[in-house]
Structures are given as C-alpha cells and as structure tokens.
Amino acid sequence: MMSDRNATAAALSLEHVTYSFGKNVAVQDFSLEVEQGSFTTLLGPSGCGKTTLLRMISGFLTPQSGTVRIDGADQRGIAPNLRKVGMVFQDYALFPHLTVEQNLLYGLKLRKDIAKDARSGLIHQTARILGLSALLERYPHELSGGQQQRVALGRVLVLKPRILLMDEPLSSLDAKLRTQVREELQDIQRELAITTVYVTHDQEEALSLSDRIAVLNHGSLQQAGAPDAVYFTPANRFVADFVGRANFIETSAGVRMVRPEWVSVRAADDAGAKEGDSAKASTTAVGSDGAVEARTNAGCAVAGNSVTEAGDSAKARTVAVIDDDAVEADETEARDAVAEDNAIEANTAVAEERSSAVAGDDSANAGDGAAVAATPAFARIAGSATVAGGAHSADATLTGTVLSASFLGAVVRYRVRCATVSGGVAVVDAPAADSRPLAAGAAVTLTVRKSSPIA
Questions:
Q1: CA 382 – CA 290 distance, rounded (Å)
Q2: pLDDT tens digits for the chain (455 residues)?
Q3: CA–CA dist 348, 334 (Å, integer)
Q4: pTM for this structure?
Q5: Cα–Cα distance for residue pair 416/422, rounded to 1 Å
Q6: What's the 3-state SS for the chain?
Q7: What is the set of domains in the chain, with CATH numbers?
C-alpha cells in the first residue's frame, strides 16, 4: 500500500478499521485521512469493501477493530442521525408520492435544531444551487434520471451535513447523462466546499471527479493519492491494470508498465519491414550499452540493437517461430544454427554446434556483448539507463499483428498480438485523425515512447 501524504486538516479519519461478515473479511486494516472540503473517491472492483466503509463512516456498521473519527472525534457509539453525515444511495430512494419540495422537506422535519421558519429558505436555496427551482411541484416519475439524482442529492444537502457520502449515485444513468451529471456534481461540490467521499468502480469517473483516489482490492488499501499520481505512478500491478488500461513488459530491471497512449502504431510496410518466409529479424536500440535480449514469436519480433544480417558465407535467416521454447533457424549455406535453452546463435561462416548459447560475431554487427536470446515468456529488455528510470530515453520497437481496431471517437484502440507483452496482446490508443484504422491481420510496428516501473 502506498499513500502520497498525510492530511493535515482531516475532516474524516479511518484508523486501521476492519470488518468481517462471518468468515468473509470485507475491510482489512484500512487507514485513510480525508481533508476538509476535498472530494475523495473509493475506487475498486465489486465486493472490495467500498460500501462497507461508507456504512462504517455513516454509523450503520460499527468497526470490529479500529476507529472512525469525524473532526477528530471518535464516532464509536454515536448514532447515524447524530453524526452530521449525509448519504446519497445508488437507487436515490425518493418518495414517489411526494413532490420534489416535499422530498426535500422530509429530512428537515426530523431535525429539531432547524427552526420551522428556516425550512422554506433552506429548500429554495438548495433548489437554486441544484437547478430544481422550476421542478418543486413535480413528482419523481415526472423527472429525468439526472433530475432525480439532483433531488436525492438535494435531500441530503438541505440538512447541511459535515460529510457527504455517495454510493455509486450515477450508475443507473446512461453514458451521456452520466457525464453531464458528473460535471454538475463536481461544480456543486466545489461551490459548497463540502467534504465528499464517493464510491465507484468506474475509473473514468474517479479520475475526473476526485482530488484524491483510494484504490481498494479485497478490502485492503492499495494506493491513495492524486488522480495523476495513481495513473502515472501506480503502486503495484493491480492499480496499474485497474486504473485505466496497461501493457506490461518484463525487463532485466523488473516489470514495466506501458499505457496505451504511450505507444504509437504504424503499418510494418511504412517502417520498411518485410513479411514472409524471407523476413529477417531486426532490432532497434533500447539499452545504453546496445544490449537487447528479445524473443520473436509468430510474426512478433522484438526490436533490439541493430539490423542483424548473416555474413556472406552464412546467409542464415531466422524464422520467428517458437515451439516448446525452441527456435528453429533455417540456413542456406550454413550447416547448423542451434537454438537450445531458448537461445539463438547466428554464425558468420559455418554454424558450429555448442551445448547452450551461440553468440553472433562481428559479421552479425552485434556489437560488444550484444546478443539476441529467446525467452519462454516474453521479451526481457536488458537493464540500462534507458529503462531503469521512469521514461525511456530511447524508443523501444516491437512488431505484431492487429487483432482488432475499435473507433472510440478521438482515438482508435488497437489490440495487437505481440508475444513481448504479458498475455500476448498489446493495447494501443492512436489518434483517430492521424489515418484510417489499420485492418485486422495487418502487420504493424509498435514504438514504445515511455514506460514506468511497476512493483
């Protein structure tokens, strides 16, 4: 778990809270501080403990261990109606037989600390903020989904809560309306400066709304931080894969994450690549020392140091096929090119059998210490200054075959078969305006412009 900071003015503190339903642990040793006036999102897959946390904050559940504090005060033993916490539920829970005004008034009737003559002013003030003034006499069934959501929010805001809790309030809206209401909600929260804890499993929603995001998995906090920190520097592989899309490449320095927008794609012909039986494996510099370890698999070649050509007397060509972790190398004038223990050797004159790896010599232009080796999982880019830090200082090039291309408006999302990437499929987002989408089956070259280390 990684947290970006400790809040200095916490409106809400969760200190090592745990809750189980029988033998099923819903929340495990969870700690988080929420600053006054901030918008904090609890983000995670279904069943990860998000709603259980809201219920502990609101007082409907009592932590079996740990402490919930509001403005520094321990809330153990304090009833939900005395915590000054408001909850907006997923289904809104509006009273169908009451008008909008009567729905807003309902909670005020139960508050003895609010005078009767002040109620009308609070209702009309809240209605104005939420754009409901012209709808006060309507019933819920006469409202759109977005209007119903605002009434549910207004019913809570009119009570002037210290903390606003929202449990996936936009999940029932269609995509366009959800975006619209999301923007309205953000404007309202900032205008009122009300401390908000928001639950969702929608990554885009969390990234666009939040000041901070707390990512959960199996009831445990994985990472808490600003949206850009969570997206660009995820604490672990789960966060990287859950918050947005990510490709993973194993290097000798560890696993690296590559976001789809950090990769450019182009037709292999545009890059000068040749397909077919006579295709030659080529590599493009990745390591500062020129050393690249790569695997070629079913038309997916990993770029390395330089174009590898067989010598005049060898004229060896490699077929990019890996079967049972062995690479078969054809030759014309060379006697043998042995692929054993996942290693490829290219000779300059006559291939000479060896028991394990065969290193290419000067005629292969491999450079000092630069060798191409096959690996059974995916390419291992040699550790160097270019891959040891945050972003590559030089581009890495991979090749593959388009599986599908999906038009998403501003971008075209490609799924590309490439053995270098964990799982064998890379996801690439390319600007839609650049060119017509590449068809399924097209041979392509992928240029990785940036990557980030991952735990």
A1: 9
A2: 444 444 446 899 999 999 999 999 999 999 999 999 999 999 999 999 999 999 999 999 999 999 999 999 999 999 998 898 999 988 888 999 999 999 999 888 877 777 778 888 889 999 998 889 999 999 999 998 888 988 999 999 988 899 999 998 888 778 888 888 888 889 889 988 999 999 999 999 999 999 999 999 999 999 999 999 999 999 999 999 999 999 999 887 788 899 999 999 988 876 544 434 333 333 333 333 333 333 333 333 333 333 333 333 333 333 333 333 333 333 333 334 333 333 333 333 333 433 333 333 333 333 333 333 332 222 333 222 233 334 433 578 889 999 999 998 888 999 999 988 989 999 999 988 766 788 999 999 999 998 888 87
A3: 8
A4: 0.70
A5: 12
A6: CEECCCCCCEEEEEEEEEEEECCEEEEEEEEEEEECCCEEEEECCCCCCHHHHHHHHHCCCCCCEEEEEECCEECCCCCHHHCCEEEECCCCCCCCCCCHHHHHHHHHHCCCCCCHHHHHHHHHHHHHHHCCHHHCCCCHHHCCHHHHHHHHHHHHHCCCCCEEEEECCCCCCCHHHHHHHHHHHHHHHHHHCCEEEEEECCHHHHHHHCCEEEEEECCEEEEEECHHHHHHCCCCHHHHHHCCCCEEEEECCEEEEECHHHEEEEEHHHHCCCCCCCCCCECCCCCCCCCCCCCCECCECECCCCECCCCCCCCCEEEEEEECCEEEEECCCCCCCCEECCEECCCCCCCCCCCCCCCCCHHHCCCCCCCCECCCCCCCECCCHHHHCCCCCCCEEEEEEEEEEEECCCEEEEEEECCCCCCCEEEEEEECCCCCCCCCCCEEEEEECCCEECC
A7: 2-242 (3.40.50.300)
